[in-house]
Design a protein that fits this description.
This protein is α+β, with helices and mostly antiparallel strands. It is built from eight helices and eleven strands. 28% of the residues are buried.
Length: 257
Amino acid sequence: MEDKKYISKEEKKIPINDPTGKWSDLTLLPEWSEKYYDVYTVRKHGKWVMLKALKKEYAEDPEFRKMLENEFDTRYNLAHPNIVMVNDLEEVPGVGLSIITDDVYGYSLRRLIDEKRLTPKIVHRLQTQLLDAMEYIQENHLAHYPITPETIIFTEYNENLKLINVGYAQKSSITPLDCSEDIRSYGKVVNEVLDHLPTSLPRLRRIAGKCENDGNAYNSISDLQLAVEKRNSGQLFTIICVFILLMAALLIWLTLR
């Protein structure tokens, strides 16, 4: 397969002066920028990777450099198929200290919404892969910025979901407020997607509405997952109890034979 990067008109090629030849083809991705950071794609030894680096006005500030280092430490040991993998922390010519991640070869949900390129598979990924990634984030007690269409990426060929902004610090535990904010963010993302679909999905719309308007509508991401899967925790508990009773009855019957 030919190794290409598909660059939109918003993206900007930047000259990079690296006499070692290690870095080349640096491209700024404005749609993925954050408050303090810019995001780039670049070739490292000929392989495409992504960079997350401080904006120029913060690049030499020790406090902000420490913030970037803390985010690297938080994310380096994370491993989830729907979270972009962090590989290294390096000084990159012309960019500065950067978190190096895998390149996802894809498009943000924001771009797919704006370009009217939403598909049924993308909606399904939001109901499955996004919730799986959010549950992992909460299980690891990660403090993070709200999940938005800008931080959700879909890979180019199979539309797998990847999150690119999953935590800047690790806490000892998460609070009910952390959970409700995540659930509210999920509802906001899904509602925006539903606003741009040519068909209505009333059950998913009801769930997303409950999430966005009341972050406490579900006690946890697990409860939200059960709702999306047309079950609830009470029904699941009943199923488990019935299964245990049946197994116990079977064991007694086998013992008395």
